[in-house]
Design brief:
With 410 residues, this protein is α+β, with helices and mostly antiparallel strands. The chain has two domains: 293 residues, outer membrane lipoprotein receptor (LolB), chain A, CATH 2.50.20.10; 96 residues, TATA-Binding Protein (2-Layer Sandwich), CATH 3.30.310. 23% of the residues lie in helices and 32% in strands.
């Protein structure tokens, strides 16, 4: 069903619901910042739901988004399947290690000896690639559990009151930390459930996007509406975002992001089973198994940051960027591009960087323009241009859009 482009129909009640929803939305660090770009781009266009199976009452896009914002599911349990395909090159697991390092984790092979294989900041970054099955459970703001099922192994993250436990059965390692205030929820490093992704996509609205209701569906045996989000602008790598919204509770049950280039979804996260009954209290009980190595996260956080020392000038530069308020954003909506200056340190050239320069360059496209020359690194969604003089341009936009942005900045 085509969107009805009429911003005047947006109701004050819907605006209030959206603002309330955004205030409740948790902050997440999203794989390669893709949803951080999308979160600032979504506008509201009313549309009436098409009839479908199941047969549900017609609703407008405003009403459905307001229903999401007002959703207050406190208790649930279920199974989530999440698939992520950014089109990254196969580096034999190196990409997961890089993402782990970016997230601040130090466990795993070759990691800091103070780290832990059960540290959630490292473990949950595995969700940025491949297909994974998760078991999730929640009982109010004080108790949540997420388990990542692996071949003959399982990783669990448990929040019970002030305690947060991470347990990796493969290595028999435990990570423990405490949080202040029993109602404070631990912040996950990456989104893991359809609601996580939907919260990111609905944090902000503007007029660069059409949002419509695209019929109905059944997800995990429950009746749902399909909310369809599409960019109005050309030049974005985002094709569409589809959110299946539970007709009764308003909770997102499935999230699918497809690229403009077509093919398989970049992110597809949905419940295969779900129940809104109160989970058994024992679900959130945890005692470190006998013989398990236990790492106290609070002690690690207070220890000298040896990784920061090893990072040298790069770490100092990143700190400097943070103090300056982060990268500058140019453009608007789906064509937003984040840019910052590394201070003249571009990619090492083949002559200056030896094998490293050639290795990195082999994964990118060499480009030239009024800005000079540089390398564009591409995924199926987020692309980044690194100029030879150290400027970076990144966003969910095409290669040509990045080159034009770099030219315009001259």
């Amino acid at each position: 069903m085509a969107p009805i482009d009429s911003d005047d129909n947006t109701t004050a009640g819907a605006d209030e619901g959206l603002r309330a929803g955004r205030r409740r939305a948790a902050r997440y660090v999203v794989p390669v910042a893709v949803m951080g770009v999308a979160a600032a781009t979504i506008g509201l266009v009313p549309a009436i739901a098409d009839s479908g199976d199941p047969d549900l009452p017609k609703v407008t896009a405003e009403q459905l988004i307001e229903k999401i914002a007002k959703s207050d599911v406190q208790q649930l349990s279920g199974t989530v399947k999440i698939s992520t395909d950014l089109g990254l090159p196969d580096l034999g697991g190196l990409e997961s290690g890089l993402m782990s390092g970016m997230a601040g984790g130090s466990g795993g092979p070759g990691g800091d000896e103070e780290g832990s294989a059960a540290d959630p900041s490292a473990k949950l970054t595995e969700l940025v690639t491949g297909t994974h099955t998760l078991r999730v459970a929640a009982d109010g703001p004080d108790r949540q559990k997420l388990s990542l099922l692996e071949n003959a192994a399982e990783y669990s993250l448990i929040h019970d009151g002030k305690d947060v436990w991470g347990y990796d059965s493969k290595s028999n390692e435990v990570y423990h930390s405490t949080i202040s205030g029993s109602a404070e929820q631990p912040e996950k490093e990456v989104p893991a459930t359809p609601k996580d992704f939907a919260d990111q996509a609905l944090k902000a609205v503007d007029d660069t996007t059409s949002v419509t209701v695209d019929g109905t569906a059944q997800v995990a045996g429950r009746d749902a509406y399909r909310l369809m989000i599409k960019p109005k602008q050309s030049g974005s790598t985002v094709g569409a975002i589809s959110v299946a919204v539970d007709a009764k509770t308003g909770m997102p049950l499935k999230f699918t992001l497809t690229p403009a280039s077509g093919g398989a979804a970049v992110v597809d996260a949905g419940f295969t089973e779900v129940s809104f009954a109160k989970p058994d209290a024992s679900t959130f009980d945890f005692t470190p198994p006998k013989g398990a190595k236990v790492t106290e996260g609070d002690e690690v956080a207070e220890a000298p940051e040896r990784g920061r020392e090893a990072g040298g000038d790069l770490a100092e530069e990143m700190d400097g960027l943070a103090e300056q308020g982060g990268p500058e954003v140019i453009g608007e909506g789906w064509n937003s591009i984040a840019t910052f200056d590394t201070g003249g340190q571009g990619l090492p050239t083949a002559s200056a960087g030896g094998d490293l320069g050639g290795f990195l360059g082999s994964f990118g496209d060499q480009v030239k323009g009024d800005f000079g020359s540089g390398t564009v690194f591409k995924t199926r969604l987020v692309n980044a241009l690194i100029t030879d003089d150290g400027k970076v341009y990144a966003g969910a936009v095409t290669k040509d859009a990045l080159v034009k942005a770099a030219d315009a900045a001259q």
